[in-house]
Amino acid sequence: MDRDKLDVIFELQSKFDNDVIEKRGLQNITPAEWIQKEALAILSELAELISEVNFKWWKNPKEINFDNVKEELIDILHFLTSSCIKVGMDSQETYARYIEKNKENFNRQYGKSNKAGYEMGELNSPPGTE
After folding, report:
1. Under a CB-based contact definition with an 8 Å cutoff, are residues 13 and 84 in contact?
2. Which domains are present in the chain?
3. Radius of gyration (C-alpha) of the chain in whole angstroms
4. Within 10 A of 9 (CB to CB), how many other CB atoms are there?
5. pLDDT tens digits, residue range 73-109?
6. What confidence tens digit (pLDDT) does each residue in 2-50 have?
């Protein structure tokens, strides 16, 4: 039977993080410091991603190397997963929070959110809510 892919990602990331902490003597870094460092790492990876997708409108566009784009996205996923683990979120909680936020995002786009600023006229209902 196939294991849940998100479970595998979280398990592998946890093993990697623990290995790095042990091998590099990083046991004294606080969870808050880890989150800060990982947020900066995500920003760095986002900058690398942006460089791959022609964000400089004032330059002649280059052909996008989608393999490089995918690599940068995976780098971001590594740091994001690690951050989730550091704040105590496992794969199940991450999934549940994603589903909840996705529903809210659809509600916002269809003017059905309680959050101010997303009001709209009559639109179709989000998928799965009819």
Report:
1. no
2. 5-109 (1.10.287.1080)
3. 19
4. 16
5. 999 999 999 999 999 999 999 999 999 999 999 999 8
6. 899 999 999 999 999 999 999 999 999 998 999 999 999 999 999 999 9
Q: End-to-end alpha-carbon separation of the chain, Å?
A: 34
Q: Report pLDDT for 85.
A: 96
Token digits for 55? 């964000």
Give 27: exposed, middle or buried? Use CB within 10 Å, 0-12, 13-18, 19+: exposed
Other beta carbons within 10 Å of 36: 12
Contact 80/50 with Cβ under 8 angstroms? no
Is there a contact between 10 and 85 (Cβ–Cβ < 8 Å)?
Answer: yes
- Residue 111 to residues 116, 120, 128, Cα–Cα distance (Å): 10, 5, 16
Which two tokens mark 95?
């999934």
Residue type, 7: D
Among 51, 75, 77, 74, residue whose Cα is nearest residue 64: 51
